[in-house]
Every structure is written in structure tokens, then in C-alpha cells.
Specification:
This protein has 219 residues and is mostly helical. The protein contains 5 helices and 6 strands.
Length: 219
């Protein structure tokens, strides 16, 4: 058999991933061993993984594998994040390419397109995580819009509200006029521009024409 002059990872990745999955080496079931649990920071389903994800997953994999070899019941939970605002922007752009206006769709029709996007890119992300050789427990994979996950979020949010640990109040917010939604500071890209500062003169009966008035003028 002639050996390649260069390492070709594709065949090796597929072989060992299939073996690990078949043997369920990374499936975690609670037992007498001390637990060691890591929840993967879920990548957004807005696209594919980048080098930052690769570094992140590599470091986590080293920690999880070391814990597993040290006698811990290591559980590494994979998942993806809906990242609703960013994902909606991608879905809306996709619809625009197809000549579809989002506002012409019903909620259910729009969600159908959104979940088609999630299915496509979510599966790509999971395949990339597997190809990296990450020792995650695939039986525990979660998407942040899964029904059971969503219900848990609503439950905890309601408990926090009832316990007065969160509240609703009037605040200045970042507003996206296109998506018509509030944005967190982390989702805003700041840009310096040269603008104008306007002064407004309010004319009041009995005051000077310049708009400056004295207290006695109001008597």
C-alpha cells in the first residue's frame, strides 16, 4: 500500500468519529463518580464555525478528556443558539433574495423558513464539531428554542419575576428601526460621525426675543 506524503485527516476523522459514536464512549450517565460537566457555549445558527470556535472547542475538549481520564464522570453538553435577532437578519436577507417580504408572511410561515435555516446551519455546525473530534455527549444536544428548553426558560423567568428579582421599568434602550426590536449594548456597532449640534429657542410671552428670560418676567 502506497502511503501519502501528506497527512490526510478526512479519512481518519470519519473513521474515529464513527467508532466513538458506535461505542458511545462519551455518553454520560450519573453514577458514583464525581461529576465534571461542561456546557458548550452554543454557536449561533447564523452560519458556520470559525477559528475562534475551533480554539474554544479544543481547549474545552482537552479539559473534558483530562477529567474523564482522571476518574470523573465527564459530561460535555453540545448545542446551538437561536440568536434570534442575528438569525432573523440572515433569514430576512434570504427571503429578500427569493423576492419574499417578511411582512407579507404569517408568523407560522415565517417560522417555517427560520427553522429551515436552523436545520441547515445547525446540522453543519454539529458536523463540524464532530469532525473536530470533540468528545461531546450527542444524546444531550440542545437547541435554545427546543420546547423543553423554552419551557424551562419561561419557568425560571416567571419565578425570578414573582420573587421580585427582576422587574420591568422605563429605560433608554438601543432600538433597531429595521427589525423593530430592542438591542443590547453588545449587539450595537458604534461608529463616529461628524454631526451637528442644534440649539432651539422657545419664545415665551413676556420674555426677551432671544429666548432668555428672568424669573420676574413670568410673574
Amino acid at each position: 500500500m502506497e502511503l501519502s506524503k501528506h497527512y490526510e485527516p478526512a479519512g481518519t476523522e470519519l473513521k474515529w468519529n464513527a467508532h466513538w459514536t458506535e461505542k458511545k464512549y462519551f455518553k454520560s450517565i450519573p453514577d458514583q463518580r464525581p461529576p465534571f460537566t461542561v456546557v458548550i457555549p452554543p454557536p449561533n445558527v447564523t452560519g458556520v464555525l470559525h477559528m475562534g470556535h475551533t480554539l474554544n472547542e479544543t481547549v474545552q475538549d482537552i479539559l473534558v478528556r483530562r477529567a474523564r481520564m482522571s476518574g470523573f464522570n465527564a459530561c460535555w453538553v453540545p448545542g446551538t443558539d437561536h440568536a434570534s435577532i442575528a438569525t432573523e437578519a440572515r433569514v430576512v436577507a434570504m427571503l429578500k433574495e427569493k423576492g419574499i417580504d417578511k411582512n407579507s408572511l404569517t408568523r407560522d410561515e415565517y417560522l417555517k423558513y427560520a427553522f429551515e435555516w436552523k436545520q441547515k446551519y445547525g446540522n453543519i455546525i454539529y458536523d463540524q464539531i464532530a469532525r473536530l473530534g470533540c468528545s461531546v455527549d450527542w444524546t444531550r444536544a440542545n437547541f435554545t428554542m427546543d420546547d423543553h428548553y423554552n419551557k424551562a426558560v419561561f419557568k425560571i423567568f416567571t419565578e425570578l419575576f414573582n420573587n421580585k428579582m427582576i422587574y420591568r421599568g422605563a429605560r433608554m434602550i438601543n432600538w433597531d428601526p429595521a427589525a423593530r426590536t430592542a438591542l443590547s449594548d453588545e449587539e450595537v456597532e458604534y461608529k463616529e460621525v461628524t454631526g451637528k449640534l442644534y440649539y432651539i429657542k422657545y419664545k415665551i410671552v413676556g420674555s426677551q426675543e432671544s429666548g432668555v428670560f428672568r424669573r420676574e418676567d413670568l410673574k
